[in-house]
Amino acid sequence: RHGQKDRKYNFTRWGINSRLDSLQALVLLNKFKIFPSELSLRQKKAIFYFELFSEIKDVTPPVIEDFNKSVFGIFTLKINDYSRRDDLKDFLKMKGIPTTIYYPPLHHSSIYSVDYELPNTDSVFKSVLSIPFDAYIYESEQRAICSSIKEFFMN
User: Fold this and answer.
1) What does the alpha-carbon distance between residue 26 and residue 64 come to, in Å, rounded to a whole number?
2) Are 56 and 150 in contact (CB under 8 A)?
3) CA–CA separation, 4 vs 121, rounded Å?
4) Distance of alpha carbon 98 from alpha carbon 91, whole angstroms
5) pTM, to two decimals
6) 3-state secondary structure of 113
7) In this predicted model, what pLDDT tens digit does every residue of 127-143 receive, in sequence order?
8) How would DSSP label each residue in 85-105?
9) What is the pLDDT of residue 2?
10) Contacts of 64 by beta carbon, 8 Å cutoff, 6+ apart
11) Among 17, 81, 110, 155, which is least packed, fewest CB within 10 Å?
């Protein structure tokens, strides 16, 4: 939590957190061996999510331009009616599906002495929700997550 004080993502001072000990380096060196296959798995899992979410008009999956390729470190949805985002988060939690809201706008951190007005940033932040995703997620888990999201919006 380098540079953070009283709560997650509230940065109070500038700094860099850059540690890599020998054990972490060993793990990463071995991880490099499977990295290309893991990226390929992530692409396949993301494509499956895209197919499932094509049926749910209340959310927008990540938009990846044709000339780009994502590694899908996270899978973040845009909830089209942002006023329902927190209710969806609570609904999924009740169903045992973890979600996260990553990276609040940096301009709200106390490190800035000036109160910046960034309405587009704030609007996007209010509408995003990250759902479970990794290279090894089962399609049955993805189906269950999407079914739960669909169920939420049907009510």
Assistant:
1) 33
2) yes
3) 21
4) 10
5) 0.84
6) coil
7) 999 999 999 999 999 99
8) HHHHHHHHHHTT---B-----
9) 45
10) 70
11) 155
